[in-house]
Amino acid sequence: MRRGALNSYKETKVTTATQSKLIIMLYDEVIKQIDIALDAVRTKKSRDVSHNAFVKSQDCISELMVSLDFEKGGDIAQNLFSLYNFFNRELLDANTHGNLEKAVAVKDMMKELRASWVSISGTTNYETAPDRVGINIAG
Fold first, then answer.
1. Mean pLDDT calculated for residue range 72-96
2. Where are the domains of the chain?
3. I need a surface site. Which of 20, 30, 37, 47 has the fewest CB within 10 A?
4. How far apart are CA 93 and CA 81, in angstroms?
5. Quick one: 19-121 is in which CATH superfamily?
6. Hey, CA dihedral for 51, 52, 53, 54, is it positive or negative?
7. Half-sphere exposure for 4 (CA within 13 Å, toward CB)
8. Longest dimension (CA), the chain
9. Alpha carbons 111 and 103: distance in angstroms, whole number
10. Which 3 state secondary structure label does DSSP give 92?
11. C-beta of residue 87 within 8 angstroms of C-beta of residue 110
């Protein structure tokens, strides 16, 4: 029963969030999934654990890509699209070739972008620690 309540809370949190908060939640989930993948590789857990976490992080980045508004966003949207595309390629390389430095670099850049979104979104009481639970894109 407790798990059902938690899932309901998370679903409500996502469905009632502003666009800025949804973007921040996607950044949070990318960071979280990269951490899971890195931990799985470093602790020699099942290859499936790291693979699935890398794939989930890429899925979140793809969601960020499709959320871009090129008409309103202009050059900024195009630059973010290129950056997100780069992130996905780097995470693919980290996943397939074990290049963890690339995953760490993507995570660090995602943290910087997240901080920028928090700053421009005008949210003052929003959670600012990047290690909390983001959204669940289970699949």
1. 97
2. 19-121
3. 47
4. 18
5. Flagellar protein FliS (1.20.120.340)
6. positive
7. 1
8. 47
9. 12
10. helix
11. yes
pLDDT tens-digit map of 39-49: 999 998 889 99
Residue type (1 letter), 38: L
Residue type for position 16: T
Could you give the CA distance from residue 44 to residue 121 in angstroms, rounded to a whole number?
39
* Separation between Cα atoms, residue 6 and residue 41, nearest integer Å: 29
Phi, psi dihedral angles at 135 (to 5 degrees) = -90, 160
* Token code pair at residue 51: 């693979």
Q: Angle of helix 47-66 relative to helix 70-97, nearest 10 degrees?
A: 170
- Which residues neighbour 61 within 8 Å (Cβ) at sequence distance 6 or greater? 26, 30, 84, 87, 88, 91
Residue 39 is which amino acid? D
Between residues 1 and 52, the one the model is more confident about: 52
Look up tokens 């508004």; give the residue.
Answer: 69
